[in-house]
Write a structure and sequence with these properties.
This is Short chain dehydrogenase. It comes from Streptosporangium roseum (strain ATCC 12428 / DSM 43021 / JCM 3005 / KCTC 9067 / NCIMB 10171 / NRRL 2505 / NI 9100). InterPro entries: NAD(P)-bd_dom_sf, SDR_fam. Strand 5 (about 150-155), helix 5 (about 165-185) and strand 6 (about 190-200) form a beta-alpha-beta unit. The chain has a seven-stranded parallel beta sheet with strand order 3-2-1-4-5-6-7, sandwiched between helices. The chain is globular and about 55 Å long. It is of the alpha/beta class and about 300 residues long. Helix content is about 40%, strand content about 10%. Helix 3 (about 75-90) runs parallel beside helix 4. It contains nine helices and seven strands; from the N terminus they run E-H-E-H-E-H-E-H-E-H-E-H-H-E-H-H.
């Protein structure tokens, strides 16, 4: 990614969104970071991380972070956000990252479809899928007008991923992949690339809290879940997006579903600790009962 590019990371309060925003900042971009939690008010997620903190991290990394409180289900807020970007950046938007999620409190893992709350399940689709559509609808005209740009739909799993274990979560994550594919079809004539991107086992702030560890002590969580040995920091998926944004031939990925570990091999970047965790290869081997030492997959 070259200095001076403009990015919007929708859903950048924490986790992968924050990691992507910071790595785009490290590449010299101006990054608009959105979310619902600010220093003054928390979203229903009730997490302490704020969009202001993310913006500060973007600036500290070398870019320019701009925090804007937006609920991406509210069309007028998204419209105003995009109008602001257009006015402040002379109509320029180079990278759109649709990372809005907020579905953790709505996801049920131990019940079939008919035993889950229908209203919660439909809310999950609104929260995790409709937000992406609303944001793209408003933002894509900026890219189309300039004849270029990159749209990244952040999801969980690749296009050929099997059932994710619970109906509404699976529908949301596979739906986002299809959103990327459909956008790719519409955008191809205009020189804009759209793709889906998945991290591996993401070591987000919430996941660290779940395991009762910090980033410095994260390996203590392996005792609770052996798969945690293959977890990756948000910087890993962030570097994947930065590498895509810097690729002059990024259109070769149009319509594809990609993974952080695949792009690490393609572009040569590493995670924050210098390792290159290959979640896909490890998980496939583990499912066959053939996984070796996790360090051999990093």
């Amino acid at each position: 990614m070259s200095d001076g590019q403009v990015a919007l990371v929708a859903g950048a309060t924490r986790g992968g969104g924050r990691g992507i925003a910071v790595q785009l900042g490290a590449a010299g971009a101006t990054v608009y970071v959105t979310g619902r939690t600010t220093a003054a008010s928390r979203s229903p997620m009730n997490r302490p991380e704020t969009i202001e903190e993310t913006a500060e991290l973007v600036t500290a990394a070398g870019g320019r972070g701009i925090a804007v409180q937006v609920d991406h289900l509210e069309e007028d807020q998204v419209r105003d956000l995009v109008a602001r970007i257009g006015a402040e950046q002379d109509g320029r938007l180079d990278v759109l990252v649709n990372n809005v999620w907020g579905g953790d409190p709505l996801t049920v893992w131990d019940k079939p479809l008919w035993e889950q709350s229908l209203q919660d399940g439909l809310r999950l689709q609104r929260q995790a899928v409709h937000t992406h559509i609303i944001t793209s609808w408003h933002a894509l005209p900026l890219m189309v007008a300039r004849g270029g740009g990159l749209v990244v739909e952040v999801t969980d799993g690749l296009a050929d991923h099997g059932y994710r274990g619970t109906f509404f979560y699976d529908l949301a994550k596979s739906g986002v992949i299809r959103i990327a594919q459909a956008q790719a079809g519409d955008l191809k004539p205009y020189g804009v690339t759209a793709l889906a991107l998945t991290p591996g086992f993401l070591r987000s702030e919430a996941m660290l809290d779940h395991f009762g560890v910090t980033e410095d002590t994260w390996r203590d969580g392996i005792a609770k879940d052996p798969y945690f040995a293959m977890s990756e920091t948000p910087a890993y998926v962030g570097r994947a997006v930065a590498a895509l944004a810097a690729d002059p031939d990024v259109q070769r990925w149009n319509g594809r579903s990609l993974a952080s570990w695949e792009l690490a091999r393609e572009y040569g970047f590493t995670d924050a600790d210098g390792s290159r965790p290959d979640w896909g290869r490890y998980f496939a081997d583990a499912q066959r009962g053939a996984a070796g030492d996790p360090q051999d997959y990093r």
